[in-house]
Amino acid sequence: MKKLFIVSLLSALAINPAVTFAEDKPLPAVLVHKVETSDLTPTFKLVGRIQPTERVNLLARVSGFLEERLFTEGRDIEADQPLFRIEKDNYEIALKQAEADLASARAGLKNAQANLNRVSQLRKRQAASQSQLDQAAADRDQSRAQVLKAEAGLRKAKLDLSYTEIRSPFSGRIGKANFSVGDLISPESGTLATVVKIDKVYVEMAVSEKLMLDARRKGIDLDNPPVAPRLILSDGSVYDQAGSFDFISPEVDTNTDTITLRANFPNPKYLLLPGEFVHVEIKRKQPETGIQIPQSAVQRDREGYFVLEVDTDNKISISRVEMGPQVEGQWQVINGLEPGDLIITEGLQKVKPGIQVNAVEE
């Protein structure tokens, strides 16, 4: 009976070779990371607010009824473009009066000068007293003063008339008008409208005084700064225009213990608007490269830090490494790895040096 069982088993193995007492175990699967050189240039991230490079509140300098508004709100305007016009009648009348006053003063001066000349001739012939000559000279000088006063009055009248047209001092974009045609306005009325220049903008940011201390020790050169800013917009995209620093506050804000740092950026498409917040990345102009690996790949024993490396035959070996600083889940490797090396990041607990693995690259 026992002999018959053995014969039956051998027959079954011959018919189905897959039936074995022990099957070969599959290689353990691990996730590996390919070592590459990456950009390790130090970067600081700050929050900044956009400011216009120029801003002016338009004010009335004379009183009167607003006669015309010569712009479209929210549109671009040119330098010296008339924007508001105040009624001119009263100021034109005042100008005519000032011209008449000047003409009268000049006539009076002419008469006083002629009288002085006559008295001078009479004095030479002893036909007039010294007091009469002195009085004639005083009258002439007084007439000259009247001419000067009339000239100043005429100049003021012309200036007041010119103030009836309110113009922009620079090209830019104008905001909402605060007064309508027919309103009575004066120098006390406040802002008529605001003009901003935004084809180039400033980005102001508050930087910790401690962060700036090291920069001040090394010397800050705004003409050729070692760092450059770039903007990260609200949707996460990078602004495509390069910026540069142009101002560092000479004093610390005692309320926040920060220093104001300012950069300027071209804004040809008006993508950036004054008042909005942006993220600013400050990065050294001179790039630094090196090797960074995931922190999950690094282990430590009594001898120091090490990683498990997979060679071309999928065998595991230990590589001792010298580590640098950690940044956002990545660890800088100063020595011990080369670009192209494969290191294990997941599955470390089920492998050991010398065995073969089924390596799957990230």
TrEMBL record:
Annotated membrane topology: Lipid-anchor
InterPro entries xref list: MdtA-like_b-barrel, MdtA-like_BSH, MdtA-like_C, MdtA-like_HH, RND_pump_MFP
Multidrug resistance protein MdtA-like alpha-helical hairpin domain segment(s): 95-164
Pfam families: Beta-barrel_RND, BSH_RND, HH_MFP_RND, RND-MFP_C
Superkingdom per UniProt: Bacteria
GO biological process: response to antibiotic
Key words, A-Z: Coiled coil, Signal
Family: Belongs to the membrane fusion protein (MFP) (TC 8.A.1) family.
Descriptive protein name: Secretion protein HlyD
UniProt organism field: Neptuniibacter caesariensis
